[in-house]
């Protein structure tokens, strides 16, 4: 088996591609794995409008966190953040923390949609919490669930009249 040289000790030969919108920085490892990073030229304060990362940086061996107004990467932090671990005003990913809205397998924020949706105002998911909670298992002030707990609940066990009126008004009936 041939050994792969340690690239952390080598000068990295990136391929740079400048477009009218921004700059791409790419590298392909001998194994075929790739690293890519894009930063737009447009800035909003100190943040690029778009920052995209993929793969491990050959200089450090670590993943670079995408940071931008729109941030896309395994780790993303921005106004709109998309990634496995994402944090932002709007966050989408596997584990997301949103200031306004988030959608993920595990979502935490005021409005949360996901398999585990921990919302302050609204939670929609298999496991959901929030003032309004909709899910298979849910907890909140107004709950619509297969199995629910809270002040006003509609579930497979009972229909609370206050919850029924609330959800009918919510859908405009």
Write a short abstract of this structure.
The protein is mostly beta strands. It is 6% helix and 66% strand.
Can you walk me through this structure?
Helix content is 6%, strand content 66%. The longest helix is centred in the C-terminal third of the chain and has 10 residues, at 161-170. The mean pLDDT is 94. A 6-stranded mixed β-sheet has the order 1-2-3-6-7-8. The protein is elongated and about 70 Å long. It has one helix at residues 161-170; strands at residues 15-18, 22-28, 34-40, 43-44, 47-48, 50-54, 66-72, 75-154. The protein has 1 helix and 8 strands.
Tell me the strand order in the biggest sheet. Answer: 1-2-3-6-7-8
Which value, in Å, is the CA radius of gyration? 22 Å
Q: What is the element string, with H for helices and E for strands?
A: EEEEEEEEH
Strand content: over 45%
Instruction: List low-pLDDT spans.
Output: none
Give the overall shape, derived from the CA principal axes: elongated
* Overall mean pLDDT: 94
In total, the number of strands is 8
Spatial gap, N to C terminus? 69 Å
Largest sheet: 6 strands, mixed
Report the structural category. mainly beta
Helix content, binned percent = under 10%
Key descriptive features of the protein:
6% helix, 6-stranded mixed beta sheet, elongated, 1 helix, single chain, 173 residues, mainly beta
Reconstruct the topology from this structure.
Blueprint: E1 15-18, E2 22-28, E3 34-40, E4 43-44, E5 47-48, E6 50-54, E7 66-72, E8 75-154, H1 161-170
Parallel strand pairs: 6-7, 7-8
Antiparallel strand pairs: 1-2, 2-3, 3-6, 4-5
